[in-house]
Amino acid sequence: MFRFVKVWQIGILALLLTAAAPASSWAGWFGLRNDLKAPVVVRSSVVTNRGVVSGRPKALVAGEVAWDSVLLPGNRVIQIYDANNREIYRKTIPIMGDQFFSIQMDPKAGVLLVPVKATPQPPGQKPT
Question: Between the CA of residue 10 and those of 2, 14, 18, 20, 116, what are the distances in Å?
Answer without folding.
Answer: 12, 6, 12, 15, 45
